[in-house]
Amino acid sequence: MDSVPDEVLLDIFNYFDGKCLKNVMLICKRWHSLITQSASTMRMLPLKYSSIIQSDEMFVHNFHSLNIQHISNVNFSKSIFEALGNTVQCIEISYCILSPRDLKVISSSFINLNFLSLTKVKLFKDPVESESDILTNEKSLILNKLILLKVDHEILDYMQSIQSQKIEIIDCHENAVNQESLINFISHQKHLTSLNIGEMNYNINVFFHQNIAEFCKFRLKKFHSLFCSNHSHVHQFEDNFISFLESQSKNLENVKISGRSLPPSIYKFVVSSLINMHTLEIDASSVPQENSFYENMARNLSIKSLIIYSTVTKHNFNGLKGLLSHYPCIEKLNLMDTDEFVANDLFHSIAYFLTNLKELVVLNFNKTFDPQTKIKHLEKFSIKIINNIEQLLKFIKIHDSTLINLSIWWITRDFESRIVKEIISLPKLTHLKIGGRFIANKRIYEVVRRDYKNLRTLHLIVNNYDEVKHLKFTFPLDKSIYTDVKCLYFEEDHDREPLND
């Protein structure tokens, strides 16, 4: 098939329906690229990659998503609404120029829309359009999720009728005309429970340039933020940020605060005052380091999950140890890396302070780490990268009486059969997930198939060049017909039928 010209392939693909095309796109990069780049000329479009086509008769009536890219004038037409308005649930628009009229159409015509994503979208105002007519919209659209990535703030002035339960706003455009639009839009949200604001290359610090707590009508359960710019010059930025968190503290369950330019007082407020949180994500370097800070506080028993997304070093270890002592009821701990100076002390502190810990996720084990300390109730363990297999085996053997779920995300060709045998021999292990090259995964499956002990689920992540497959096996298997077990599925598409192995 490599020698078949693109034109011939397109003729063949034109006889496939949208669902078949989605499967065809998974076969190789060339076919994936050919279908996505030629979508506008094909009879049947894969739903995920559907695009606006100017000839209205080419639309089908069962689209669930629209993907609109690189169009300077979208200009939604009436026939498009009639064909798609009742069925489309997801719209993704990127690198386009929209008019206020287009934005009004989205909120009023796609009545079942629950997901809207705008990426690098600019606004164009037609001088002949009446501003009052555009802003007037009797209908209110409630989305499940809204994503705004590098869009002009002013676009939000024409989205006032859109409400959303979840909103992500990342890097609003540097050439924003009216920065107050962002605050006005957010403050009018009534159904919002999850807010993610991120600042990488462009400023959206206007969000806390005034005290928005008094304007907000929503009650957040989840709040994530990332600030990369220095806000020390902004009058009352710190007070406004804390005031906002305080106003949301009653229902706030999941919090992520990141940005080394933020003042320490914000992190201290999060740790000391947000007492109803269940999940906290924080940079190890931003954790308050003073021992006296933790000694003067009552312990927080609400936190069940702690995620540390930066390297634990000897410079921030004391702060992290204080954090572990402050949250003794943690059941899940997610760590990135540790330097060689604190690896053993860190695991000793985990075992000492977190007596309820059931799940531990680590990036890798430092080469100086010597597994000796047992985490009393550890049931699930996940490691991304293996530096030393014997080190890993020693760790899991220490926890063999409690460990029921083990995930190893990347193995190499030299992952020997004896290692697999030792792992599946753990007396309580019922779930095993392993990722790596196909050859290594095939060897693992052969070993497990012959003697799977107490194992009930084997999940293999096969990484072959540009292809990632997820294979799931449920035991016991009939060993005589194991090759016919329906076990292969693609994780990114849960609706497709499983294929035979």
Fold and architecture overview:
The chain is of the alpha/beta class. Among the domains are: 1-46, Monooxygenase (Up-down Bundle); 278-380; 404-501, no CATH class. The protein has helices at residues 6-13, 18-24, 29-37, 78-84, 100-109, 131-135, 180-187, 237-248, 264-273, 291-295, 317-326, 343-353, 389-398, 417-424, 438-450; strands at residues 65-69, 90-94, 97-98, 115-119, 122-123, 141-149, 162-170, 194-199, 222-227, 254-258, 279-282, 305-308, 332-334, 359-362, 380-383, 405-411, 431-436, 457-464, 467-474, 486-489, 499-500. It has a 19-stranded mixed sheet, covered by helices on one side. Helix 8 runs parallel beside helix 9, helix 11 runs parallel beside helix 12 (343-353) and helix 14 (417-424) crosses helix 15. The chain is flat, with a radius of gyration of 27 Å. Mean pLDDT is 79; it is low at 42-62, 173-177 and 478-501.
